[in-house]
Amino acid sequence: MRIVISEFMDEAAVDTLRQRFGPDAIHYDANLVDNPAALAAAVADCDAFIVRNRTQVRGALLAACGKVKVIGRLGVGLDNIDVPACEARGIRVIPATGANALAVAEYVIGTAMLLRRASYLSTAEVIAGKWPRNKLSAGRETAGAVMGLIGFGSIGQLTARLARALGMHVIAYDPALPATHTAWQDIGVQPKTLEQITTEADVISLHVPLLDATRNLFDANRIAAMKPGAVLINTSRGGIIDEAAVVAALKLGSLRGAALDVFTQEPLPATADWADCPNLVLTPHIAGVSFEANIRVSSMIAAAVIDALK
Ligand code: NAD
C-alpha cells in the first residue's frame, strides 16, 4: 500500500497513516505539487492520493494515477479535481465536508466587521504621528446590518448562525434549497432572490461552488447594482466575481470595502491595480485554513482514506 500526499497536511494525521501502513508507505512532501515530473512519477504506483486545492487532478496527472483507488481532498471545493473522470476510472473522491467551515465563517464575520467599521487600518498613520480621528469616526456597526449570503450550504449556514448571534438580519439565496427546508427557520434566515440580495444586503458573502452557473456571477453589472456602501466578501472561488470590477467599485467608492481570499489566478499576479484601493483585505486562500481546521481536515481525510483502503 502506498499513499502520496502532495500538499501540506497536519503531521499528526500523517503519522496516523504511517502507523497504519508503515513509514515507507507514505510519500509526504508538502511541495510536491510544485514539481510536476516528480509528482507524476510518485502517483504512478500509489493506492491513495491526498491533495489540497493546488494539485490539479486531471488530464496527464490523472492518467498517471494507474492504481489509485481513492483521492482524499484536504478541503471541500472539488474544482481542482476532474470528478467525472475519476468516477469513470473507479476512483473515489472524498472531500473533508464541514471540517473547515468554522474557519471560513469566522473569516467572513471578522472581515465584515473590519470593513464595515473601516477604522482598524490606521496603524501606519498613527505610528507616523497623525491622528486620523475625524476621518475614521463614521464607521458602521455590525448589529442591525443585513448580511446577504449567496449559497446556503454548510459554510453559508454556519456564517448565518454567527451573523445572527451578532444581531445581523440574514437573507440568503440558494436555488437548490427549497423554502420549506428546516434550515431557513432553524437559523432564522429569509430566502430571497439573487436580485433582492444584491440590492438589499449591507454585506454580501459568497458560498457557492465554482460551476458554469456561478462563473462571473458577480460581474461588473451586479457589483454596480449592489447597495451603495455595501461590503463584498469572496471566500468561495476565484472566477465567481469580476476582480477588475471590484477594484473599480472600491476606487469609485460605491463599494465600502472588499475581502477576497480566492482569485481567478492563484497566486495573484503582482500588479499595481489593487495598490491604492481603500478598505481592502486580500488573503492567499487561507479562509478555511486555521490551526484547528487543519487538524480537523487532516484527521478526517486520514480516517476516510484508511477506511476506503480496507
Ligand atoms: P456546500 O456544498 O455545503 O454549499 C454550497 C451551496 O451552494 C449549496 O447549498 C448549493 O445549493 C449552493 N449553490 C450552488 N449553485 C448555486 C447558485 N448558482 N446560486 C446560489 N447557490 C448555489 O459547500 P460549502 O462547504 O458551503 O462550501 C462552499 C464553497 O466554499 C466551496 O465550494 C469552496 O469552493 C469554498 N471554500 C473555500 C475555502 C477557502 O479556504 N477559501 C474553504 C472551504 C470552502
CATH superfamily of the largest domain: NAD(P)-binding Rossmann-like Domain
Query: Helix/strand/pairing class, anyone?
Result: alpha/beta
How much strand content do the residues show? 15-25%
Q: Which ligands appear in the coordinates?
A: nicotinamide-adenine-dinucleotide
Q: What is the CATH first-level class name of the largest domain?
A: Alpha Beta
CATH architecture of the largest domain: 3-Layer(aba) Sandwich
Q: Spatial order of the strands in the main sheet?
A: 8-7-6-9-10-11-12
Shape: globular
Sheet of most strands: 7 strands, parallel
How far apart the termini lie comes to 11 Å
Helix-strand pattern: EHEHEHEHEHHEHEHEHEHEHEEH
Counting DSSP E segments of at least 2 residues, the number of strands comes to 12
Helix fraction bin:
25-40%
CATH topology of the largest domain: Rossmann fold
Count of domain modules: 2
Low-confidence stretches: none
If you had to describe this structure to a student in words, what would you say it looks like?
With 310 residues, the chain is α/β, with parallel strands linked by helices. It has two domains: 3-97 and 291-308, Rossmann fold (3-Layer(aba) Sandwich), CATH 3.40.50.720; 101-282, 3-Layer(aba) Sandwich (Rossmann fold), CATH 3.40.50.720. Helix content is 36%, strand content 15%. The chain has helices at 11-21, 36-43, 59-64, 83-88, 101-117, 123-127, 154-165, 182-187, 194-200, 220-225, 243-252, 291-308, and strands at 3-5, 26-28, 48-51, 70-73, 92-95, 146-150, 169-173, 190-191, 203-206, 230-234, 255-260, 280-282. Strand 9, helix 10 and strand 10 form a beta-alpha-beta unit. The longest helix has 18 residues, at 291-308. Nicotinamide-adenine-dinucleotide is lined by residues 75-77, 100-101, 104, 150-156, 173-177, 207-209, 211, 213-214, 235-237, 261-262, 285, 287-289.
